[in-house]
Design a protein that fits this description.
CATH architecture of the largest domain: 4-Layer Sandwich
Strand order of the largest sheet: 14-13-12-11-10-9-8-23-24
Number of strands: 24
Largest sheet: 9 strands, mixed
Oligomer: single chain
Helix content: 25-40%
């Protein structure tokens, strides 16, 4: 049976180029299953997926490479802009262009008018494949012509849109580091697939790229010295304190500190792990070695992505384990074939340094017990408090679970119910990127709505025995502040204190 293969072609922007590439694939029995070209993005780059036998695909690659169509490297392009003063004689411009052509430079801009203010001056902008070639070209030109260098950039920031995807690759390298060329080409192919899907839904392709880059950039700049966290502390009993840590991007981390026992509910992104441990130590909570168990509510990277970096085993739903293995957050739902969901999972796992739990205990399948509309999978004790593990309907994600303590009125609602009003503008903006790229963070909106309604009713009926909170049920959402459900909506249950690496926890 033919296999699926993908490649990126960089073809001349001239009539017949696409037809020539298609003829090569047809000749070897290749069936094109996806193609995307958008002149608004990059006038020379085409993305292909083709089904054919592996042996014939090698022949297709060889022929495409022979005519210069197969893109196998992204290079480290430089941008050069300068004035050059040419002698006023026939052939002067032709001679100058000979040097730029020999350097394989792509002219992005050229301006000359002998009737203008500078009749002997040509202004040129060039894209060159690497800084060494740019330096050699500069030395050649300086020895022959009077010149003024206006810009010389080796970061890729100034590259023009005729090599948009190469410029995008350089920006991605700044986020994920120096990835191998094959990996980066494959990742570009994935991003392009998101662009194709969302463009067909009427979105601006450049807005898609911006949301991708903003997602990765936000995570990178909010680590290390840029890390911050909003912290709530609630004394749930005489010897147990519950901490809620709102990460800069992504979901909350909860920590029960019971003296001899620490239990974590959700882990945050892997990229924040070192910062979280540093915060724990600053607050006198240890270095993570006292954590005996981790409870994972669902498989999104911002809730389980640091699990493999802790020594403790993680308890989770089988569906969570399946999603992690399949690397598709929509697995187990009606939308599991969505390209947007699958590619977004790949992207966010890469940007956030996904390291899911390796030591796993799975909750048993549902029996006959239910709480409201939710099957009860298990009961467990955390620092002396008994919780029911409730199975969601799969509205946000297949395998998501909730934790409910009828005795104390603590309810962990994961991403099905949280205090949206408590989110800072920065967190709302970060969360909006996922909403844009996958159109909805819920894999089944109807089920998500039913879950949310049932959780609110459960919270309204429950009473908290935690002192000082007025008997209201304590809602620990996957994002935002730990809150109580009052008559006019969710309100923070305790003050949020800001932690930074520079200043520690601000009282």
């Amino acid at each position: 049976m033919p296999d699926g293969h993908s490649f990126i072609a960089r073809m001349p922007n001239q009539p017949g180029a696409l037809h020539r590439a298609a003829e090569i694939m047809k000749r070897y029995g290749g069936n094109i299953s996806r193609i995307h070209y958008d002149r608004r993005i990059d006038p020379q780059t085409v993305f292909f997926e083709v089904r054919c036998y592996s042996g014939t695909y090698a022949a297709i690659e060889e022929e495409l490479a022979a005519i210069g169509y197969l893109q196998t490297s992204l290079g480290n392009f430089s941008f050069l802009r300068f004035h050059v003063h040419l002698p006023h004689r026939p052939g002067a411009l032709f001679e100058f262009l000979g040097y730029t052509t020999a350097a394989n430079a792509n002219i992005a801009f050229i301006d000359f008018d002998e009737t203008g203010q500078h009749p002997d001056r040509v202004t040129v902008s060039l894209n060159l494949t690497e800084s060494r070639i740019a330096d050699e070209l500069l030395n050649q030109l300086k020895s022959r012509y009077p010149m003024e260098i206006l810009e010389y950039d080796t970061t890729g920031e100034q590259l023009d849109t005729t090599i948009f995807y190469i410029q995008l690759a350089q920006k991605l390298r700044a986020i994920i580091g120096n990835a191998e060329e094959d990996f980066l080409l494959s990742f570009l192919h994935d991003i392009n697939h998101i662009v194709q899907e969302l463009t067909n839904l009427g979105e601006d392709p450049h807005e898609v790229f911006d949301n991708v880059l903003q997602t990765g950039t936000t995570l990178k700049i909010t680590t290390g010295e840029g890390f911050y966290c909003d912290v709530q502390r609630i004394d749930v009993s005489t010897d147990t304190t519950l901490y809620c840590f709102q990460m800069p991007g992504g979901g909350n981390i909860f920590l029960f500190d019971g003296g001899d026992e620490q239990v974590m509910v959700d882990t945050g992104y892997g990229i924040y792990h070192a910062d979280v441990l540093r915060m724990f130590q600053t607050m006198g909570l240890g270095d993570g070695s006292r954590i005996t168990r981790i409870i994972i509510t669902h498989a999104d990277a911002d809730h389980c992505g640091a699990g493999g970096l802790y020594g403790a085993a993680a308890c989770m739903h089988r569906g969570t384990q399946d999603i992690i293995r399949e690397a598709n957050r929509a697995y187990g739902s009606a939308s599991q074939d969505s390209v947007l969901e699958e590619v977004y999972t790949t992207m966010i796992n890469l940007f956030s340094r996904f390291s899911p739990p390796e030591r796993v205990h799975l909750f048993s399948p549902a029996g006959g017990a239910v709480r409201s509309i939710f099957p009860v999978l298990a009961t467990l004790r955390i620092c002396g408090i008994e919780f029911e593990v409730l199975e969601s309907l799969g509205g946000h994600l297949y395998g998501q679970v909730f934790l409910f303590s009828p005795d104390t009125g603590l309810l962990f609602t994961a991403d099905s119910l949280f205090n949206f009003r408590s989110l800072t503008e920065e967190r709302r903006r970060y969360n909006s990127h996922a909403d844009f790229l996958i159109t909805s963070v819920n894999v089944d909106s109807d089920r998500a709505s039913k879950e949310r309604k049932a959780l609110v009713e459960l919270a309204q009926a429950a009473k908290s025995t935690i002192p000082g909170l007025g008997g209201w049920c304590i809602i620990c959402g996957g994002h935002g502040a730990v809150s109580v459900l009052e008559e006019d909506g969710l309100a923070p249950a305790a003050a949020c204190l800001r932690y930074t690496h520079a200043s520690g926890l601000q009282q």
